[in-house]
Amino acid sequence: MTEAPSTTPKVESSEENSSEEETFKILVTHPEVPQEALDLMSRGCKLIMCESLPPNRTEILQKAKGVHGMFWGSHIPLDKEVLDVAGPQLKSISTMSAGIDYVDVEELKKRKIPLGHTPIVLSDAVADLAMGLMLSAARRFHEGRTKIDSSTWENYHIEWMWGQDVRDSTVGFFGFGSIGQAIAKRLKGFDIERVLYTTRRPIDKKLEKQFNAQKVEFHELLGQSDFLFIAAPLTPETEGIFNSTAFPKMKKTAVLINIARGPIVNQDDLYTALKTNQIFSAGIDVMNPEPLPANDKLLTLPNIVITPHIGSATKRTRTDMATIAAHNVLRGLVGEPMLSPAY
């Protein structure tokens, strides 16, 4: 799949007048990292394994001291405290995720520690789930199941359980990177009318032509989209942007899908928008907080489909993510460019 670092990961011993070599130590913060990645890193390095499930910050801090690399396999904050405990010999870190909103990137940059992550490889799996959420929300799968559970079939009404058509629709994307484009590729089989997108910079003209896509301002995206996919990173600018100001600008027949990050949507405002039929329905794989409490009011609504952040949860995808993260760590240890650098 990828080439290993050209140099076997070793570090010179710190003992004076010693020519011995000491094996690099890599902290692995999750005990269930796929074996393929562990095998790759263990060839020339010593793995310091965390055993707690769910991953435990206390254990991570206890085991971080003196490591040279970190395979960050959880969304526990990776911050100054962790770096201080690890020590100045720390020289390479990779997350096993696309998003890095839980990482203090500026602190890593200040210390000149390279950071890897794993975007792109998960785009297809997340796009598949996004399509499922779109169809489930548009055609009222969750509500239909509750009708079965409560024996309240009313199919004698001609308009019973009417949903939204995908064909001839305008599909909007808030964020149109690799995941958004993977979704757009899948939508080609649904005979949609056009694609709109809102990003900081326009995408390549060839891609715009390929997807029949047009860059528009945020208010236009809201007002014209029949289906609206959130596929942007969480930043100070995007946090809470889908709120009580945004939802009234959307079509009452609009379907919102979020496969990005929960805090991009103000959940109280989403609840109100769905409860009062400001928008038709929503499908979300991300929320705030995670895990979502079982008594959260969103779960009382019939017109929302919720999955527990499983966008990349396939064996192939998670194994590929782990392998790329392992290559990132190993390359950083020997001073080579990471396979998938975050900056």
Automatic annotation (TrEMBL):
<comment type="similarity">
    <text>Belongs to the D-isomer specific 2-hydroxyacid dehydrogenase family.</text>
</comment>
<feature type="compositionally biased region" description="Polar residues">
    <location>
        <begin position="1"/>
        <end position="11"/>
    </location>
</feature>
<feature type="domain" description="D-isomer specific 2-hydroxyacid dehydrogenase NAD-binding">
    <location>
        <begin position="131"/>
        <end position="311"/>
    </location>
</feature>
<keyword id="KW-0560">Oxidoreductase</keyword>
<dbReference type="Pfam" id="PF00389">
    <property type="entry name" value="2-Hacid_dh"/>
</dbReference>
<dbReference type="InterPro" id="IPR029753">
    <property type="entry name" value="D-isomer_DH_CS"/>
</dbReference>
<protein>
    <submittedName>
        <fullName>Glyoxylate reductase/hydroxypyruvate reductase isoform X2</fullName>
    </submittedName>
</protein>
<feature type="domain" description="D-isomer specific 2-hydroxyacid dehydrogenase catalytic">
    <location>
        <begin position="26"/>
        <end position="340"/>
    </location>
</feature>
<dbReference type="InterPro" id="IPR050223">
    <property type="entry name" value="D-isomer_2-hydroxyacid_DH"/>
</dbReference>
<feature type="region of interest" description="Disordered">
    <location>
        <begin position="1"/>
        <end position="22"/>
    </location>
</feature>
<dbReference type="InterPro" id="IPR006139">
    <property type="entry name" value="D-isomer_2_OHA_DH_cat_dom"/>
</dbReference>
<dbReference type="Pfam" id="PF02826">
    <property type="entry name" value="2-Hacid_dh_C"/>
</dbReference>
<dbReference type="InterPro" id="IPR006140">
    <property type="entry name" value="D-isomer_DH_NAD-bd"/>
</dbReference>
<dbReference type="InterPro" id="IPR036291">
    <property type="entry name" value="NAD(P)-bd_dom_sf"/>
</dbReference>
